[in-house]
Amino acid sequence: MLLFGLRAQPFFYEKNRAFWTLQTVGWTFYLLLRMASGVGNGFGLSFAIPVLVSAATGYSITLVMGALYRWLIKLKPIATWTGTLITIIMGVAVYSAIDAWVFSLINGESTPFSSRLLLGTLTISSLLIGAWSALYYGINFYLIVEQQADAFAQRRQSGRA
Q1: Cα separation of 117 and 101, whole Å?
Q2: 3-state secondary structure at position 73
């Protein structure tokens, strides 16, 4: 039954569409949460610019990471996890640098770009990139196990027939 464009099939039936949906919804939720936090803490409109840049940066970096992960997940486990760790470190470094740079640009001379500011952005960047990576692999490994279970059930059923 088709109701308002919804299909009667599993969410991950079209894996690519599910990725884009989760990517967009996740980063939009992050943006809205950070904006609500800023409004709740009484920050002015200038707060919106670095938050928008942060969300766009995170969205873009995780798109690149997703492409790398699609390739890495097919390798042997040691290569997958080593490549993933390197990708996370690089993603966190780039995300933190861009966040710190934008923050220093917005605040002008009162907060110059420094290693201290960069270290301050590492916490949220690590959390976001790490959580995104965990979700990516968690979902993909779940889908792999589900495929294997379906294949096993199908073999078992065809063996009885």
Answers
A1: 9
A2: coil
Residue among 30, 16, 18 nearest 58 (CA): 30
Distance CA 141, CA 135 (A): 10
Side chain identity at 111, as an amino acid letter?
A: T
* d(C-alpha 22, C-alpha 12), whole Å: 11
Residue 52, CB-side half-sphere exposure with 13 Å CA sphere: 6
Q: Are the C-beta atoms of residues 91 and 61 closer than 8 Å to each other?
A: yes
Question: Contact 108/41 with Cβ under 8 angstroms?
Answer: no
pTM of the model: 0.80
Is 73 exposed, middle or buried (CB count within 10 Å of its CB: 0-12, 13-18, 19+)?
middle
Dihedral (C-alpha) 36, 38, 41, 47: value to the nearest 10 degrees? -160
With tokens 């936090």, the residue in question is 37
Choose among 62, 65, 2, 55: nearest CA to 29. Answer: 55
Give residue-wise pLDDT tens across range 66-122. Answer: 999 999 999 999 999 999 999 999 999 999 999 988 888 877 766 676 778 888 889
Tell me if 23 sits within 8 A of 63, measured CB to CB.
Answer: yes
Q: How far apart are CA 148 and CA 67, in angstroms?
A: 23
